[in-house]
């Protein structure tokens, strides 16, 4: 073979350097692509925090930066959950805020005059670059092929399943958690491959960081023990497994207990018991293994094995008994509802009501993963070829995560990394086979070809390689086409589906120009400018964080749904008659009530569509007073027009949504564009509330709660009097103004 | 003073005693009919048992449990209803709260069904007492409509809510000894069988191909939306309104059972084509055969992927991408 200039660069010592440089450049480019594809929303709109939860995280970060770490740790927030307040410092995962706080202070120290908001907005894209890097490391540990790591990093950088939670402005826990997840798994694989305490300790360290950042750490807490357990079942116990697992478990549990929100959960909660159980089992197996070295004799060894199984069984029974008797807390609701899929809907409607807790239909998988979804099973199959310890990990992770992703849309996020790993394995093995220029097998992939006798059916014969250039050209062209299609798909999805801040809605004018619907911010600013600093705002919990963050007003309930009763109280106030709701509003010092109404614009995420969940949650606490059945017509329809049930039409939510809506239309022509129905001739009448503000497109409507009547009448009578109606029956009532309660 | 209070209490007791004597007898009479299970009623005894004055609560389940009425809900609920009655009758009844549980089947009580104008079964009626310490002013029976399958616990909490305050006997599900014994037996049999047959079973358990097949099937099932079907209970297929069958549901977050199977099959074909191209084809020694294999598998890949994109375009209207054949 003739020496060509490229050969000089690609072979020997200088070859290694060139490849290293190339790899570095490629990774840097991937990171840049990952960051820049997440900036659509900043370029199109502005540097703004998205969605709901990020507003709370942003508010908490501002508090941290202004008041310092210790006061953040002890933060009691009296501006949420009025009148209860929230021990915020002890009930959040502080990892995200602390990370941005550290970045902020470092940049300030380096004299960059940077605003904390910009750090928060750009944190997620920044960490996505790191995730791509971590992905490269992880895949390189799993596959001997050098191209697999780079492919995986590229996939991870732009796959929509991850972008959906990490565009600029989505300042949520997942923004850093996915990086930590992938990196912890990389360190774990490294630890189990080398049997090294250092890597195990590093894995524990990053696991601790992960615990501080996201509730999804339970996934790691269960996946790593499961990996070890499967390895033990396969008879693969070794000192490597022992060292890495015990190091990780001991240090990781201690680290996780430093977070106030987690506290003693690792030893008191069923979610964490598998880790503890496997830790115990591993000690037994290690002991048996140790004894076995001294005593030969087949019978004795069999006895030993039986002993191990017996002790493990007894310990397992003990754990079960402890959880039945209540010493160990049962599975937490969210986690349990993954296994018993009907559980949440019956027992915890508040969990079932969240849209990201719905099951996933197949188009969502294809939408988020494109062609990786069918490369994924192929990659998992290829893991069975070598079936080393790390491949076992990939297989377990794949099966488990695809189950979780099928049950809950939100968990697509945990599936995405392993899909990238597996499909990179599959694609790199195709590329390695078909790209290699000369005929015969690729010498680089030769290394893993010494297949054991009981390998996979498809890998029994020796590999000969691809002989014709035509096949190579054909395959390469199609792979390149698929890859281009993938990139186009990712860009399209990111730009169309995942880049709108949801606080600001974009629409197209008839001439094609963009029209921005900014009702949310308009309304929140109205609250900020026109209400007292301590005016209490009641709304459904979805908007709690935004009101707290943008309007800076106390709220009754927010997206941290820790107190079901309080949320049900709001649900009851919204779904009852005015006479019932008014005392509730007065008792909770409510000054303003905020509802979201999409009827004019056709905005489907409004409160009337969420209304049934409010009813259900209220019914869970007050089954006598609120009944879901009353909101459906006799034929079981949910209607808002003439056919709506009296309960529906008298509910506060209905009244607030459609109050005065008739006046926009010709008489009798009022139309709700979301439900697509004509509304009744007579609009609803409100007596205890008065309209305070309605935004430009009527998306947000704010009502002021009236004070008690000066003459001691109830509001219905007062309204009737003002309108000039005659009082029907004279009632004499004297005495001081009293709050009527029931 | 003491005498006076005694006298007053006497005065109080006398009228109660007078009118409750026949009533207490009625309660005892019916209660003795069936000490544990719900009382079986017919038209006349229904009239009698619910007649005023009554000094006890009575819960009547109006049902149609016989097979010829085809009421599945009634038959399913029957054991649960007996469970409620048994738990109540066996439990310790607090502070003199008296309650009867009764069943009126449609075959015995057509007249009552007509009189109450009942179109559906089962229906539960709870009559409050009209006299005595727990009497209610409004003596109309409370009605519970069954909107779907319901467990004894849910109904029992509903009943308890409408009874006076105070402790109530808990709902006790009998321990199914049969089941425990059979589970233990089966478990032990399985262990024994496994120990004896281990030389034959172990190679199967350790078979890599088998595990690979299991994992792949699981992954394909889950990623094609099987859990969605399971949770949402979607129909298998639906008509398209023109007498044909529509295989694909309209809308992005909607699907049919058959649709997911088609998708799983597409994914499977695509994956196996990939596996074949990456692992099988390089092992074919014959040049010609290899060439043909590459072209065939490559075309399968292209065709299937193009079909998948086409299907996806149907589900998601504005999707701009496609591949040539479809």
From TrEMBL, chain A:
Gene Ontology biological process terms from the UniProt entry: post-translational protein modification; protein N-linked glycosylation via asparagine
Physiological role: Catalytic subunit of the oligosaccharyl transferase (OST) complex that catalyzes the initial transfer of a defined glycan (Glc(3)Man(9)GlcNAc(2) in eukaryotes) from the lipid carrier dolichol-pyrophosphate to an asparagine residue within an Asn-X-Ser/Thr consensus motif in nascent polypeptide chains, the first step in protein N-glycosylation. N-glycosylation occurs cotranslationally and the complex associates with the Sec61 complex at the channel-forming translocon complex that mediates protein translocation across the endoplasmic reticulum (ER).
Cofactor(s) listed in the protein's UniProt record: Mg(2+); Mn(2+)
UniProt entry tagged with the keyword Disulfide bond: no
Localization per Swiss-Prot or TrEMBL: Endoplasmic reticulum membrane
GO cellular component: oligosaccharyltransferase complex
Pfam families: STT3, STT3-PglB_core
PANTHER family according to UniProt: DOLICHYL-DIPHOSPHOOLIGOSACCHARIDE--PROTEIN GLYCOSYLTRANSFERASE SUBUNIT, DOLICHYL-DIPHOSPHOOLIGOSACCHARIDE--PROTEIN GLYCOSYLTRANSFERASE SUBUNIT STT3B
Pathway: Protein modification; protein glycosylation
This protein's UniProt keywords: Endoplasmic reticulum, Glycoprotein, Glycosyltransferase, Magnesium, Manganese, Membrane, Metal-binding, Transferase, Transmembrane, Transmembrane helix
STT3/PglB/AglB core domain location: 537-586
Family: Belongs to the STT3 family.
Domain Oligosaccharyl transferase STT3 N-terminal: 22-422
Keyword Transport: no
Listed GO MF terms: dolichyl-diphosphooligosaccharide-protein glycotransferase activity; metal ion binding
Name of the featured protein: Dolichyl-diphosphooligosaccharide--protein glycosyltransferase subunit STT3
Composition-biased stretches (Basic residues): 724-742
Transmembrane spans: 21-43, 91-107, 119-139, 145-163, 175-192, 212-234, 246-267, 273-291, 303-329, 364-384, 391-409, 415-437, 473-494
EC number: 2.4.99.18
Gene3D superfamilies the record matches: 3.40.50.12610
Signal peptide: none
Organism per entry: Aspergillus heteromorphus CBS 117.55
Region Disordered: start-end pairs: 717-742
Automatic annotation (TrEMBL), chain B:
Principal subcellular localisation of the protein: endoplasmic reticulum
Keywords: Endoplasmic reticulum, Membrane, Signal, Transferase, Transmembrane, Transmembrane helix
InterPro entries: OligosaccharylTrfase_OST3/OST6 (IPR021149), Thioredoxin-like_sf (IPR036249)
Transmembrane region(s): 177-197, 209-228, 262-279, 291-312
SUPFAM superfamilies documented for this protein: Thioredoxin-like
Compartments where located: Endoplasmic reticulum membrane
Membrane topology: Multi-pass membrane protein
Entry superkingdom: Eukaryota
Residue ranges of coiled coil: none
Gene Ontology CC annotation, any one: oligosaccharyltransferase complex
Signal peptide: 1-19
GO biological process: protein N-linked glycosylation via asparagine
GO molecular function, one term: transferase activity
Pfam families named in the record: OST3_OST6
Family: Belongs to the OST3/OST6 family.
Function noted in UniProt: Subunit of the oligosaccharyl transferase (OST) complex that catalyzes the initial transfer of a defined glycan (Glc(3)Man(9)GlcNAc(2) in eukaryotes) from the lipid carrier dolichol-pyrophosphate to an asparagine residue within an Asn-X-Ser/Thr consensus motif in nascent polypeptide chains, the first step in protein N-glycosylation. N-glycosylation occurs cotranslationally and the complex associates with the Sec61 complex at the channel-forming translocon complex that mediates protein translocation across the endoplasmic reticulum (ER). All subunits are required for a maximal enzyme activity.
Name this polypeptide is given: Oligosaccharyl transferase subunit
UniProt source species: Aspergillus heteromorphus CBS 117.55
């Amino acid at each position: 073979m003739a020496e060509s200039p490229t050969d000089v660069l690609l072979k020997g010592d200088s070859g290694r350097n060139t490849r290293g440089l190339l790899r570095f450049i490629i990774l840097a480019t991937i990171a840049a692509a990952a960051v820049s594809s997440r900036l659509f929303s900043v370029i199109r709109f502005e540097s703004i925090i998205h969605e709901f939860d990020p507003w709370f995280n942003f508010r908490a970060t501002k508090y941290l930066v202004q008041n310092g770490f210790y006061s953040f740790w002890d933060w009691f927030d009296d501006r949420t959950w009025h009148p209860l307040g929230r021990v915020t410092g002890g009930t959040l995962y502080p990892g995200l805020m602390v990370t941005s706080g550290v970045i902020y202070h470092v940049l300030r120290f380096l004299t960059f005059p940077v605003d904390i908001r910009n750090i928060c907005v750009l944190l997620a894209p920044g960490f996505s670059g790191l995730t791509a890097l971590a992905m490269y490391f992880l895949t390189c540990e799993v596959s001997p092929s050098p191209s697999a790591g780079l492919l995986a990093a590229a996939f991870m950088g732009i796959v929509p399943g991850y972008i959906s939670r990490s565009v600029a402005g989505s300042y949520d826990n997942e923004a850093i958690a996915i990086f930590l997840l992938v990196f912890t798994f990389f360190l774990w694989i490294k630890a189990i491959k080398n049997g090294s305490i250092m890597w195990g300790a590093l894995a524990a360290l990053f696991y601790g960081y992960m615990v501080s950042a996201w509730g999804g750490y339970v996934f790691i807490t269960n996946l790593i023990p499961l990996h070890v357990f499967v390895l033990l079942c396969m008879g693969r116990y070794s000192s490597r497994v022992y060292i890495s697992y015990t190091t990780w478990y001991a240090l990781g549990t201690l680290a996780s207990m430093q977070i106030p929100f987690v506290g003693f959960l690792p030893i008191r909660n069923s979610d964490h018991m598998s880790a503890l159980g496997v830790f115990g089992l591993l000690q037994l197996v290690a002991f048996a293994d140790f004894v076995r070295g001294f005593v030969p004799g087949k019978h004795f060894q069999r006895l030993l094995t039986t002993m191990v199984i017996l002790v493990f069984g007894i310990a397992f029974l003990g754990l079960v008994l402890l959880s039945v008797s209540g010493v160990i807390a049962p599975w937490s609701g969210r986690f349990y509802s993954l296994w018993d899929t009907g559980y949440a809907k019956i027992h915890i409607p508040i969990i079932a009501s969240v849209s990201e807790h719905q099951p996933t239909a197949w188009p969502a998988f294809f939408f988020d993963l494109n062609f990786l979804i069918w490369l994924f099973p192929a990659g998992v199959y290829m893991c069975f070829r070598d079936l080393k310890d790390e491949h076992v990990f990939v297989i377990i992770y794949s099966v488990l995560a695809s189950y979780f992703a099928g049950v809950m849309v939100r968990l697509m996020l945990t599936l995405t990394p392993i899909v990238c790993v597996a499909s990179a394995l599959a694609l790199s093995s195709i590329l390695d086979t078909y790209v290699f220029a000369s005929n015969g097998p690729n010498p680089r992939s030769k290394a893993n070809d010494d297949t054991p006798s009981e390998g996979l059916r498809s890998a029994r014969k020796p590999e000969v390689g691809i002989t014709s250039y035509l096949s190579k050209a054909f395959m390469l062209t199609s792979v390149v086409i698929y890859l281009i299609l993938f990139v186009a798909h990712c860009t399209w999805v990111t730009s169309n589906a995942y880049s709108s801040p949801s606080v600001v809605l974009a629409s197209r004018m008839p001439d094609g120009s963009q029209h921005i619907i900014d009702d949310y911010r308009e309304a929140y600013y109205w609250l900020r400018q026109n209400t007292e600093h301590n005016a209490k705002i009641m709304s459904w919990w979805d908007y709690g964080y935004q009101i707290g963050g943008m309007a800076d007003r106390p709220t009754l309930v927010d997206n941290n749904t820790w107190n079901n009763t309080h949320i049900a109280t709001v649900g009851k106030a919204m779904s009852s008659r005015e006479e019932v709701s008014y005392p509730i509003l007065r008792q909770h010092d409510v000054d303003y009530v905020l509802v979201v109404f999409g009827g004019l614009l056709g905005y489907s995420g409004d409160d009337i569509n969420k209304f049934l969940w409010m009813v259900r949650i209220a019914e869970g606490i007050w089954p006598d007073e609120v009944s879901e059945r009353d909101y459906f017509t006799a034929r079981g329809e949910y209607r808002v027009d003439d056919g709506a049930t009296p309960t529906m039409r008298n509910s506060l939510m209905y009244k607030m949504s459609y109050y005065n809506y008739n006046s926009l239309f010709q008489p009798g022509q009022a139309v709700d564009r979301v439900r697509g129905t004509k509304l009744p001739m007579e609009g609803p009448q409100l007596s205890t509330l008065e309209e305070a503000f309605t935004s430009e497109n009527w998306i947000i409507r704010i009502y002021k709660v009236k004070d008690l009547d000066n003459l001691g009448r109830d509001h219905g009578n007062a309204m009737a009097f003002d309108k000039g109606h005659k009082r029907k029956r004279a009632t004499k009532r004297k005495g001081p103004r009293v709050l009527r309660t029931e | 003073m003491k005498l006076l209070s005694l006298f007053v209490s006497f005065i109080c007791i006398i009228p109660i005693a007078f009118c409750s004597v026949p009533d207490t007898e009625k309660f005892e009479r019916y209660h003795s009919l069936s000490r544990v299970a719900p009382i079986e009623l017919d038209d006349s005894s229904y009239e009698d048992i619910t007649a005023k004055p009554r000094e006890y609560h009575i819960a009547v389940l109006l049902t149609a449990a016989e097979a010829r009425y085809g009421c599945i809900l009634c038959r399913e609920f029957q054991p649960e209803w007996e469970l409620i009655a048994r738990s109540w009758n066996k439990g310790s009844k607090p502070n003199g709260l008296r309650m009867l549980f009764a069943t009126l089947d449609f075959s015995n009580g057509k007249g009552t069904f007509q009189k109450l104008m009942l179109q559906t079964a089962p229906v539960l009626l709870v009559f409050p007492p009209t006299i005595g310490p727990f009497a209610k002013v409004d003596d109309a029976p409370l009605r519970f409509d069954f909107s779907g399958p319901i467990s004894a616990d849910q109904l029992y909490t509903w009943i308890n809510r409408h009874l006076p305050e105070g402790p109530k006997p808990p709902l006790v599900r009998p321990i199914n000894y049969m089941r425990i014994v059979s589970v233990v037996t089966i478990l032990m049999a399985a262990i024994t069988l496994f120990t004896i047959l281990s030389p034959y079973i172990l190679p199967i358990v350790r078979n890599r191909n088998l595990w690979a097949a299991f994992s792949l099937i699981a992954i394909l099932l889950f990623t094609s939306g099987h859990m969605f079907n399971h949770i949402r209970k979607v129909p298998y297929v639906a008509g398209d309104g023109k007498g044909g069958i529509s295989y694909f549901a309209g809308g992005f977050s909607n699907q049919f059972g058959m649709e997911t199977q088609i998708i799983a099959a597409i994914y499977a074909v695509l994956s196996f084509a990939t596996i074949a191209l990456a692992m099988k084809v390089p092992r074919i020694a014959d040049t010609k055969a290899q060439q043909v294999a590459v072209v065939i598998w490559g075309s399968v890949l292209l065709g299937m992927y193009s079909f998948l994109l086409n299907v996806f375009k149907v589900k998601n209207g504005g999707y701009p991408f496609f591949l040539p054949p479809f």
